[in-house]
Amino acid sequence: MLLDAARRRIGADRVFLDWHCIGVDQNASGVSARFRNPESGETLPCQSGAVAVGCEGIHSAIRKQLYPREGPPLYSGVNMWRGVTRWPRFLTGASMVRAGWLATGKMVIYTIGNSGSARRRFQLECRNVDARDHHGGA
Ligand SMILES: Cc1cc2nc3c(=O)[nH]c(=O)nc-3n(C[C@H](O)[C@H](O)[C@H](O)COP(=O)(O)OP(=O)(O)OC[C@H]3O[C@@H](n4cnc5c(N)ncnc54)[C@H](O)[C@@H]3O)c2cc1C
To answer: Engineering a disulfide at 95: which of 71, 76, 83, 91 sits with its beta carbon 3.0 to 4.6 angstroms away?
Structure first.
């Protein structure tokens, strides 16, 4: 859905899939982004523009370039399990349940979608005791 919307708005010939950004170079007139094919490792042509927006997620290559000493993301110590099931509506129909806490285990249940069917997403969370020692969590 998002891909179709992006193609409609900016043009299908301007959306490149499977181009991994490996870094950007900037000078007074703009930026040039470097790319590689993630499968073959082949170097792809640089793309230039006025600005580069790094939005490549938690393992961002551009963030690593800008903050080389930051290191990898830190594990918060919280594990989550999620799922979706059909379940009868309760209270207002949009009410949610939040029970427990991280130290012992927390459960969150809420409605997703606004169709007639009552789909509920559930989420279970708990803190990994070993990770707590490393990151000082409660
Ligand atoms: C299982 C799961 C459930 C979640 N549920 C929720 C929720 O219910 N509510 C909520 O608020 N958040 C939720 N999150 C968190 C949320 O998905 C993320 O915080 C959010 O997607 C981060 O958005 P982003 O655009 O920074 O990165 P992403 O969504 O990770 O997008 C990064 C994109 O960049 C691409 N990419 C990566 N590296 C490169 C590269 N080098 N070059 C080019 N492209 C690259 C990736 O393929 C990806 O398409 C969930 C996350 C997970 C994993």
So the answer is: 91
